[in-house]
Write a structure and sequence with these properties.
Elements (H helix, E strand, L loop, with lengths): L20 H9 L5 H5 L5 E8 L7 E14 L8 E6 L5 E6 L4 H7 L5 E11 L2 E5 L3 E4 L9 E4 L8 H14 L9 H7 L4 H10 L4 H28 L10 H5 L8 H14 L6 E6 L5 H14 L3 E5 L3 H14 L7 E4 L5 H13 L4 E4 L13 E6 L7 H8 L7 E6 L5 H8 L3 E5 L10 E6 L3 H13 L3 E5 L19 H12 L3 E4 L5 H12 L5 E4 L12 E6 L7 H8 L10 E6 L5 H12 L3 H12 L20 H20 L7 H12 L13
Parallel strand pairs: 1-2, 4-6, 9-14, 9-15, 10-12, 10-13, 11-12, 13-14, 16-21, 17-19, 17-20, 18-19, 20-21
Antiparallel strand pairs: 1-8, 2-3, 2-5, 3-4, 5-6, 5-7
Helix pairs in contact: 4-6, 6-7, 7-21, 9-10, 14-21, 18-20, 19-20
Keywords: ATP-binding, DNA damage, DNA repair, DNA-binding, Helicase, Hydrolase, Nucleotide-binding
Protein name: DEAD/DEAH box helicase domain protein
InterPro entries: DEAD/DEAH_box_helicase_dom, Helicase_ATP-bd, Helicase_C-like, NA-bd_OB-fold, P-loop_NTPase, RecG/Mfd
């Protein structure tokens, strides 16, 4: 139960003065539905403004008195920005631009022929003064003073910086002074402000480093404490030792000898499964490092010990691939393996459920359907979860409830995680790392080509198809509409490339993206797997788990828009057979220094772990590991720089609290309980209700 002192912070934002249905809508769009959300919605910067009656300033924050003189318009194609032309009364003309679907809001605020104070960044584009997305538009009156400094926030239609600042100030007035959860010596050493002071200072000055470090530390500490509690609770759970006699593993016929890394991971897992406390281990391996073989070895230990095992995959197509692979490897062994997905109905499903209940099915492979309420196991001893980041703690707990005692759990990921982030994502787990590649795995030749040479690339693709090959063509966007907020319209979408390639290759081209429904997507993927489609145009939906050995060409459109780790994952979709494979990185015409360095690294390096570290270094405070679908860091306030600097300290402090300072029952523990709820890591509290 949430501590009472936090109730004001979890009150609805609609309880603040001045929030009606019209203002509640943009707040909800930004997920600012509680006072807590408002306080943690930190500013993006601060603007020092000049007041000017003459449109001569440029590249500055300005508040300009303007009269609207001309009609708004869009380009002849109907795309591009919504535009209003205004004058400053001194023959200076300024264009006001809104990208996306903001025209109704702009029309309401900017009636033609009237004068307004328009605030925003003055800039010049093609010799024309303009303000893109004005931050505030006010009637001309004495009451509308123009602030010299203003805190800036990411906004949504219907919100202004000033309005949001007023709401945050109301929220601060309700915020309680919370008991201190940081260890006193650490607090004194860093001379950090209290939690409440830090929040207040950051909204006044986003560059206040001490305040930012304090808040970042709080978030990291809450995360590490939650993981420590989960780990401690897991070790107290009632499990059962699983010790196999090796007769099934010895009977396996493998085409190659396991690598040293695979053998080491197998021994670590075998040792864990022999303990009475349930295993909770992460198997981290690069693309093609042989995680499936390690998983199979683990599954067979459970079966040898007389228990059942479940293998959970995030998608149906990946579940079917795992089922086929494991079935081939287990051929001739007395092991009954079955597949269960959400689409299995009728007698087939009933037969599988009966086999699980009576124990005649030894290994079940499937999607989330394998832990639905009606699925009951006779004696589930081990669960293996592939692509761990697709499943949350709650889903893992549902699977654990399928056994009388908590089953051993092995989770796997092919997404390399920087060592500095490993504790934040998997701090409650033991980790095995596959850092060797099996013999025979060929390096993928990687080339960088300017997108202007797309005609040459298509011609090369045609020759590849004529020789019986298959290829992926990956785009950063699904459709044209995603370009609305981008000043450049040259970024190709998957739908555009699909239309273009159909002109050359007809029905040999297929399209998949995240907006498609599951059955529709799987139909195309299955056709590609069977060789009925030669070119699969896709977004990053194919980043994980697609295994088509005949596909030996990967083309990544506008590769500079992807993170290093994501590029590496995409490249790993090819090179899965014995034939030579190639990855072509099409780059845009304008590259930043970071983009150039990123493309140079991916071209010359095939080590996913090194690329993950470089990705973190290059991205800095930006997104980690691609565009947040691969190994997200899960933090709202702490930047990657903060994580690197503060995580080891927060981890040690959390361990100190759990191991020495009485956990949640002591005085500091009670304060730390507030932190768990405040930063929404409170699921961990349920593991220690007696704390």
């Amino acid at each position: 139960m949430r501590p009472e002192i936090l109730n004001p912070l979890f009150a609805e934002t609609e309880s603040l003065k001045g929030i009606g249905p019209a203002l509640a809508k943009p707040l909800k769009k930004l997920n600012l539905t509680r006072i807590r959300d408002l306080l943690f919605y930190l500013p993006s910067g601060q603007l020092t403004r000049i007041k000017t009656d003459h449109a001569t300033a440029k590249d500055v924050g300005a508040s300009v008195i303007l009269t609207l003189t001309a009609r708004e318009y869009r380009s002849s194609t109907g795309r591009g920005p919504f535009r209003v032309i205004a004058t400053d009364g001194q023959n200076g003309v300024i264009h006001l631009l809104w990208f996306g679907n903001n025209s109704s809001w702009a029309r309401k605020l900017m009636p033609l022929g009237e004068t307004r104070i328009v605030t925003g960044k003055l800039d010049i584009y093609q010799d024309q003064l303009q303000i893109v997305h004005p931050t505030e538009i006010l009637p001309l009156s004495e009451g509308n003073s123009i602030p010299i400094k203003e805190t800036l926030y990411p906004l949504s239609d219907g919100l202004t910086h000033r309005r949001l600042s007023h709401l945050i100030q109301q929220g601060m007035e309700r915020a309680p002074d919370l008991p201190e959860w940081i260890e006193p010596t650490l607090l004194q050493k860093n001379q950090w402000p209290s939690w409440r002071q830090a929040i207040e200072r950051l909204h006044k000055n986003p560059d206040d480093r001490d305040a930012k470090m304090r808040i970042s530390y709080d978030e990291l500490f809450a995360n590490q404490l939650a993981l420590k509690l989960i780990r401690a609770a897991n070790r107290k759970k009632r499990g059962f030792p699983l010790k196999g006699n090796g007769h099934l593993r010895d009977a396996l016929t493998l085409p190659f000898k396991p690598t040293g890394a695979q053998s080491r991971a197998m021994l670590e897992i075998e040792g864990d499964m022999q303990q009475s406390s349930p295993m909770l281990r992460l198997l981290q391996g690069d693309v093609g490092s042989g995680k499936t073989l390690v998983a199979l070895n683990s599954l067979l230990i459970a079966v040898e010990a007389g228990y059942q095992a479940a293998f959970l995959a995030p998608t149906e197509i990946l579940a079917r691939q795992h089922f086929e692979t494991l079935s081939q490897q287990l051929a001739g062994l007395p092991v009954n393996i079955a597949l269960l997905t959400g689409r299995d109905k009728g007698k087939l499903r009933e037969s599988i459920l009966m086999g699980l209940a009576d124990g005649s099915i030894h290994i079940l492979v499937g999607t989330h359907a394998i832990f639905q309420e009606k699925v009951s196991y006779k004696n589930l001893g081990l669960a293996v979860i592939d692509e761990q980041h697709r499943f949350g703690v709650a889903q893992r707990m549902m699977l654990a409830e399928k056994a009388e005692h908590t089953p051993h759990l092995l989770v796997m990921t092919a997404t390399p995680i920087p060592r500095s982030l490993m504790l934040t994502a998997h701090g409650e787990m033991d980790v095995s790392r596959l850092d060797e590649m099996p013999p025979g795995r060929q390096p993928i030749e990687t080339r960088v080509i300017a997108v202007q040479r797309i005609a040459d690339v298509i011609a090369s693709l045609g020759r590849h198809i004529a020789q019986g090959g298959q290829a992926y063509w990956v785009c950063p966007l699904v459709g044209e509409s995603e370009n609305d907020l981008d000043f450049s319209s040259e970024i190709a979408s998957a739908e555009q490339r699909y239309t273009l390639l159909q002109q050359y290759f007809g029905d040999k081209v297929g399209l998949v993206h995240g907006r498609m429904k599951g059955p529709e997507k799987d139909k195309v993927m299955t056709a590609f797997s069977k060789g009925e489609i030669a070119v699969l145009v896709a977004t990053t939906v194919i980043e994980v788990g697609v295994n088509v050995p005949n596909a030996t060409l990967m083309i990544i459109d506008h590769a500079e828009r992807f993170g290093l780790a994501q590029l590496h994952q995409l490249r790993g979709r090819v090179g899965r057979g014995s034939d030579r494979s190639v990855c072509l990185l099409l780059r845009g015409s304008e590259l930043s220094h970071v983009a150039r360095e990123r493309l140079a690294l991916i071209r010359g390096c095939h080590d996913g772990f090194r690329l993950a570290e470089e990705d973190l270094r290059l991205r800095g405070s930006g997104e980690i590991l691609g565009t947040r679908q691969s190994g997200e860091n899960g933090f709202q306030l702490a930047s990657p720089e903060d994580i690197s600097a503060l995580l080891p300290i927060a981890n040690d402090d959390a361990r100190l609290l759990v191991d020495r300072d009485g956990g949640l029952s002591a005085e500091r523990g009670q304060a730390a309980r507030n932190a768990l709820y405040l930063f929404e890591r409170d699921a961990a509290v349920s593991f220690l209700r007696s704390g």
